[in-house]
Write a structure and sequence with these properties.
With 731 residues, this protein is α+β, with helices and mostly antiparallel strands. 50% of the residues lie in helices and 17% in strands. The longest helix is centred in the C-terminal third of the chain and has 35 residues.
Length: 731
């Protein structure tokens, strides 16, 4: 039976609408699934109703003690007794209407936690609490406390501030130490010096009984800088490696044939020449050649081809393909690290390392800014020491210069803008995963789309039901109801939507690789491939009904266009971007889609390595490419692109490899995101200008000795607030 595959997307059995608000809130956070004995991927789970349905359904299985769904990762973690296996749970989920695949929980466990985010948030809370208390003590000193009272408040401030700085400032200190060991000056070197010198000078003044200390300045610096660092971390939403996600998609166990018996073994134990059994609905665990059986293979996740491929003795199969209809016996030709799935994971790992070399605007500014700050502070110290001979005065002025030029505003310039822009896009349905994604999106001049599941929803729809009499529709629905084939399901649902009950058909039997047959009114009837029924093919995607009377009837299908696809292509082209369509689908299907959307540049039959190679060629020619895709075959290209987008319905690995996730279904948001990214970059540059203007005014004041470290800290805070307010204009 011909087919349009549904990689990464199918109708949500619990709801047919956009994800609920609770789900969107969950998607905004980097969640994690707790460790469990079994881990299953749920590519079709979309909403809170899906979550409750799956958890209740699995919780009712004997032996299952706990089932937790994470909608962000589209994954369920199951704690169960040893006798409960993944196949049993997958069957239960199939009965509930959810596609599921077993994942290797061990492969994923290394990247499930977000320790860095929790660590930054904890340090931010400590710094904020300490800052409020130290400032309260400072108010008493500013109000005129003298002698022993003033000294007591200074010592109490020291007891609060020094441990706080030592604990909360560790992210900056570690980064600065690493930079110095590498003999370079990063943004955190002047930050660390400013914090340590402010605290150290304050301790010196406290010991000497000085009138002024700057513990509040040291703690305030730490707090503001941690706020910027945490904002930056949240916008980046550090994700698991796409290469590890790909490796986890490999089936962890296989059914090996030994002396004619099936024995379940780990993938690592498979050897060249082993015979393995792949049941209908199962994923092929290793590369090999079919030796026995006939079926159809869904290769869409690997190649993007929307029509299932025939499988018969002699057919080559690859790890990751899905066996649709009949059992297959496969002789292993490559397993484990040598399989095609792992070769694709290697492609993704290489592409990720290349993209991670992108330097943000803030990093580039820091290369110039950091050395200048140190030289200026050193010049102030040496100059005032030479002019006055007063070491205490020289140190005070040097510290004031270092604090007033501390790159707090520069550190907030990018995350403040990115957070404001990300919040706006999230409310519209786009989740920014990477902190530099908006900067890279603003540079894009070329857009590459995948077809199935990206420009389309990957959902076949019967398009000519009105051309058939009710009797044929009822008969077709009865036959289609006996199959799990994508076209059969779509046909049965389409007829049911018309309110027509299926006909009474007996002796239903699915013929793997061909279709379904049965008996109706004493005649044999069939629904399936054109060649099986000796029918003349009428469309690229169609199935045929043979009733025993007249010629077989064709039911043709079309892939539903994703909402906003036409508007996205049109607007992106109007913005001056070149639009390409690169798909693993057939030439006829790709050409028809390109013509439908007005895309002049298209490529059909592209394998995963072909997509990555074409993007690399575009990059070598100087183009900045935005890749939009959803399947396993797109992951290498998504990782290699200058910036990438995938729908929330995409395969886990594709969403992990991408920089931006489309939470809804409307592709028109891509053009809006491209426009907003350009405005965000303008705001970032404006923030740099604000920071520079502030330094031009404040630095001479500090150099002349007219600003104490405390005044410098207040001026620095004012510049940071100004930068944040400018960023909020994007909202």
């Amino acid at each position: 039976m011909a087919s349009v595959s549904t990689p990464g997307f199918s109708a949500c059995p619990a709801c047919a609408v956009a994800p609920a608000a609770e789900d969107l809130a969950q998607r905004a956070q980097a969640g994690s699934v707790p460790p469990a004995r079994l881990m299953l991927s749920l590519p079709t789970a979309h909403c809170a109703a899906c979550m409750s349905t799956v958890e209740r359904g699995l919780g009712a299985v004997p032996g299952v003690s706990d089932a937790r769904v994470n909608l962000t990762l589209k994954r369920v973690a199951v704690e169960a007794a040893p006798e409960v296996d993944a196949a049993q749970l997958i069957a239960v989920l199939a009965g509930l209407g959810y596609e599921a695949h077993e994942l290797d929980a061990g492969t994923l466990s290394m990247t499930e936690t977000d320790r860095q985010g929790r660590d930054l948030l904890m340090r931010l809370g400590v710094a904020g609490f300490a800052m409020m208390n130290v400032m309260l003590l400072s108010v008493a000193v500013w109000s005129g406390a003298e002698a022993e009272t003033r000294d007591l408040f200074h010592w109490i401030s020291a007891l609060i501030a020094l441990p706080t700085v030592a604990f909360a400032g560790q992210p900056f200190f570690r980064s600065a130490l690493t930079a110095l060991k590498a003999r370079r000056l990063g943004m955190d070197v002047p930050i660390s010096l400013a914090i340590l010198l402010a605290a150290g000078l304050s301790l010196f003044e406290t010991i000497e009984g000085g009138r002024h200390t700057y513990f509040d300045a040291a703690v305030a610096l730490t707090f503001f800088l941690l706020a910027g660092r945490y904002l930056d971390h949240r916008t980046r939403a550090v994700a698991r490696s796409a290469a590890q996600e790909l490796a986890a998609l490999e089936v962890p166990r296989a059914q090996r044939l030994q002396d004619g018996q099936e024995v379940e073994v780990p993938i690592a134990e498979l050897r060249l020449g082993d015979l393995i059994r792949v049941r209908p609905g199962g994923r092929v665990p290793a590369d090999g050649v079919v030796t026995e059986g006939a079926s159809e293979l869904d290769r869409s996740l690997l190649t993007g081809e929307s029509l299932p491929a025939r499988a018969a003795p002699g057919t080559d199969v690859s790890a990751g393909e899905v066996n649709l209809t009949g059992p297959l016996t496969v002789r292993v030709t490559a397993a484990g690290r040598d399989s095609s799935l792992h070769r694709m994971a290697d492609l993704v790992a290489v592409a990720e390392s290349v993209k991670n070399k992108y330097t943000s605007l803030a990093d580039r500014a820091a290369l110039i800014y950091a050395p200048g700050v140190h030289l200026l502070s050193l010049a102030a110290f040496l100059g005032w020491l030479w002019l006055s001979g007063d070491l205490r005065l020289a140190v005070n002025i040097a510290v004031a210069v270092l604090i007033i030029t501390c790159p707090c505003a520069l550190g907030l310039a990018v995350p403040a803008v990115v957070t404001a822009a990300s919040g706006r896009l999230f409310r519209k349905g786009l989740l920014i995963k990477d902190g530099t994604a908006l900067e890279r999106l603003a540079e894009v001049d070329t857009v590459v789309f995948d077809k199935t599941g990206t420009l389309t929803l990957g959902m076949p729809e019967p398009e000519n039901l009105a051309d058939h009499p009710a009797a044929d529709l009822q008969l077709a629905a009865a036959l289609a109801g006996a199959s799990s084939h994508p076209l059969a399901r779509a046909l049965a649902q389409g007829v049911a939507a018309l309110g027509l009950p299926p006909a009474e058909v007996t002796d239903l039997r699915e013929v793997p690789g061909y279709g379904i047959e049965g008996r109706w009114q004493g005649r044999r009837v069939r629904l399936g491939r054109a060649e099986w029924l000796d029918a003349t093919p009428e469309a690229a995607t169609a199935t045929y009904l043979e009733t025993g009377e007249g010629r077989p009837r064709a039911f043709t299908f079309t892939d539903r266009l994703r909402p906003g696809a036409e508007a996205a292509v049109r607007t992106l082209a109007a913005q001056g971007k070149a639009v390409h369509l690169i798909s693993g689908d057939s030439a006829a299907a790709v050409q028809a889609m390109a013509a439908r959307l007005g895309i002049a540049h298209w490529v059909a039959g592209a394998l995963p390595e072909d997509k990555a190679a074409r993007l690399a060629a575009m990059a070598a020619a100087g183009h900045k490419v935005l890749m939009v895709g959803d399947g396993l075959n797109d992951t290498a290209a998504l990782a290699a692109a200058h910036v990438s987008v995938s729908p929330a319905s995409a395969l886990d690995a594709a969403r992990v490899a991408s920089d931006i996730v489309l939470l809804g279904t409307d592709l028109a948001l891509l053009a809006e995101a491209a426009d907003l990214s350009r405005r965000a970059v303008r705001r970032i540059k404006e923030n740099f200008a604000i920071s520079a203007a502030y330094n031009l005014i404040a630095v001479p004041i500090a150099l002349m000795g007219l600003a104490t470290p405390l005044a410098a800290a207040l001026a620095m805070s004012a510049s940071s607030i100004t930068v944040s307010l400018n960023a909020l204009r994007l909202r």
